[in-house]
Write a structure and sequence with these properties.
It holds the Pfam family DUF6088. The chain has 2 domains: about 35 residues, no CATH class; about 160 residues, no CATH class. The chain is about 40% helix and about 10% strand. The strands form 3 sheets. The chain has a 3-stranded mixed β-sheet with strand order 5-6-7. Strands 1-2 form a two-stranded antiparallel sheet. β3 and β4 form a beta hairpin. The longest helix is centred in the middle third of the chain and has 15 residues. The radius of gyration is 20 Å and the shape is elongated.
């Protein structure tokens, strides 16, 4: 109901309840409604991933094959969306999604696409169906053309709470894409200079060794 502006909560609740009674909306959680659409197979159903994200807001990200698919690096669509949830407990209702709990980790206000990128790097690109070269091209376009500098800074700051290998791969991607040094240098400084990291598929980055890839 918080998406409805210009009316009181009571008025919004009454209007939504009336639409639900008319069969135009379906109540799927407290204060959350799904707009029903007719399909050849019957009324549409809300996406499990969308419902978990809507309920938990910025405390969830797509992960695994779901993240790779969202990034355009895989055509595989899991039967059950794969999500990671930041918190101490699993949600009461996962709406059919496969949820992985990440305890003690701090969540950040990332977009779904930004969160998917960090999860893809955390998995070392394991769920990509594209080769290394095509993967790097797609990720380069994402960073260069689809994210503003403020979003790139938010992504970098979120990466500071990720494992060192994620920071290393993201820093290498930033540098390889030609982004400002001010964006990737903090990531480099956060790394132990004696450590080596498994970049997985991203080992094909031309500057991977400079970023301590094994």
């Amino acid at each position: 109901m918080e998406d409805i502006q210009g009316v009181t909560p009571a008025a919004a609740s009454k209007a939504l309840s009336r639409l639900a009674e008319q069969g135009k909306l379906k109540r799927v959680a407290k204060g959350v409604y799904h707009s029903l659409k007719k399909t050849p197979l019957g009324a549409s159903k809300p996406s499990a991933a969308a419902m978990v994200r809507r309920t938990l807001k910025d405390k969830t990200r797509p992960t695994g094959a779901s993240a790779a698919n969202l990034l355009g690096l895989s055509t595989q669509v899991p039967a059950r969306p794969q999500l990671v949830v930041f918190g101490s407990n699993l949600p009461a209702d996962a709406y059919g999604a496969r949820v992985h709990l990440r305890r003690g980790a701090r969540s950040h206000p990332l977009t779904e696409l930004e969160g998917a990128l960090l999860e893809f790097l955390r998995d070392r690109g394991a769920y990509a169906q594209t080769g290394g070269e095509e993967t790097l091209k797609r990720l380069g376009r994402l960073l260069k053309s689809e994210l503003s500098e403020s979003r790139l800074r938010e992504l970098r700051d979120a990466a500071q709470d990720e494992p060192p290998r994620v920071r290393a791969v993201l820093g290498a991607l930033f540098e390889h894409t030609g982004l400002s040094k001010s964006l990737f240098e903090p990531l480099r400084k956060s790394l132990n200079p004696l450590s080596k990291f498994d970049f997985g598929l991203l080992r094909e980055l031309p500057n991977a060794l400079e970023w301590q890839a094994k």
